[in-house]
Amino acid sequence: MKSSEATLRVGILRTDQVLPQFQSDFGDYPDMFRRLLETAAEACLPTRSLSLHDYDARQRQFPAADACSGYVITGSRHGVYDDEPWIEPLVAFLREVIAAERKIVGICFGHQLVAHFFGGEARPADAGWGVGVQEIRLVAQQPWMIPHQDRLKLLSSHKDQVSVLPEGARLIATSPLCPIAGFVIDDQIMTLQGHPEFVKGYSRSLMEMRREILGESTFQAGMESLSGSVDGDLVGRWMINFLSA
Q1: pLDDT above 90: residue 47
Q2: Secondary-structure percent of the chain, ordered helix, strand, coil, rounded to 5
Q3: How far, in Å, CA of 93 to CA of 221, rounded?
Q4: How far apart are the C-alpha atoms of 86 and 95, rounded to whole Å?
Q5: Catalytic residues
Q6: In 3-state terms, what secondary structure has residue 138?
Q7: Do the beta carbons of residue 144 and residue 238 sit within 8 Å?
Q8: Can you point out the beta strands (E) in the chain?
Q9: Helices 232-244 & 29-44 angle (0-180, nearest 10)
Q10: CATH, domain range 7-124+160-197+232-244
Q11: What does the pLDDT read at residue 156?
Q12: Is the pTM of this model over 0.90?
């Protein structure tokens, strides 16, 4: 699809689901991205409509690669190195998407997946968990970063990180906790480790559930960080700008 077409079709590639006890308050992952992207589209696509489509990658529910202008890979509780039977088919589909010259946005697990299977590496981070509001620094301005900011604050929930950039990638975001916090490959792939789709209530619920796993110092720091601002809505605009270009 070209940017001149009236409808921007975006596929959400679901790689996990929100735990049942949290869904009544926060919805499932496609619901979170729907809220984020529909709000962003109202500001960024005044003359076009947005059509979102949910595909469960765990069930190998993939459309034709050119069915959408671009695809968003969600976060997941799984590691990209886990022996899950749906990961390799998802990677094969992404190769088809690239060949069809459609766009890919990878968020958290999606960020790690693209790196790990396209010439880079993702693994458990030596720094441990990153939770709550985390600040990243933008080191390479892109044309879709409108309006531009030099720093972003995003909600995070991850114990894995990208440790080696994939082939042809350019670093766009970094932080002391997460040195490879985002990258691009040409004008076709963009990724971020943080979660623009999360809301603070969901982040709080995840941290409370994982308090013992996180350890008390990480838990307390993460909870205290929720008093700060987040830039999820801005990143939602960037995602729409990128997917519609």
Answers
A1: no
A2: 35, 25, 35
A3: 39
A4: 15
A5: 108, 195, 197
A6: strand
A7: yes
A8: 7-14, 49-56, 70-73, 103-107, 121-124, 130-138, 151-158, 160-164, 169-174, 182-185, 189-192
A9: 70
A10: 3.40.50.880
A11: 97
A12: yes
